[in-house]
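Re: that chain you flagged

S.,

Sorry for the slow reply, it's been a week of failed gels. I finally had a moment to sit down with the sequence you sent. For the record, here it is as I used it:
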Amino acid sequence: MLTFISNIFFHIGRYYTLVIRSFNRPEKNHVFRKRIFEEIDRLGVSSIPIVLIISLFMGAVITIQAAFGFESPWIPLYAVGITTRDSVILEFAPTLVSLILAGKVGSNIASEIGTMRVSEQIDALEIMGVNSASHLILPKIIAAVFINPFLIVLSMFTGIIGGWLFGTLTNVVTPYEYIYGIQYDFRIYNVIYALIKTVVFAFIISSVPAYHGYFTKGGALEVGKSSTTAVVYSSLLILLFNFILTQLLLA
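Prediction finished late last night. Pasting the structure tokens below so you have them in one place:
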């Protein structure tokens, strides 16, 4: 038990040190800017198709489940639109999509940096006097924190459109009632709350896998293990901070 606790503090301290090193000023600004745009394209733009597909069917399922759950004649039909809107904005788009991105993007980051570590490319950067943490990790963190809120907003719109499309196609709700419910008592703070969560999740998705990849030891097998561990810990931290932020921002 004591060893387990000391390991936790060891990893927290080493992660904190690595993140601080990552935020050092980069040596060449034009190379740094180029790397940020490359990471935005690789981590964010390439994830758009999977975000659209997940969000479309997520909105559809929420709408159909809400319609069948409201059996009482005292509950107006436009409550289906309200339920879909709030479920998608408050929870499903920021949290579920971030968990999906933790698997897709997180494993990519951990395997890339882990491969560079075991093939001694990171050692070569250090020998040349390059701050490898800043060169490799900071562009990924900035790119994820910048692009993920756009992905989540896209997910919100797609989820709500998916609810409208499949809700009307299956005749569980009329277009008028659904759109009225979407507009009813809309609170902009809910979107702000979701975007705050997204920024925190984006930092976790980019920094935690980078940490696991950066300290990989061994060969290809260990790179695979680092990728798996990175996805597991990223997902757990997303769930933990989802609870903490919800308590802080909505309680």
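What I noticed first: Residues 79-118 form the longest helix (40 residues).

Talk soon,
D.
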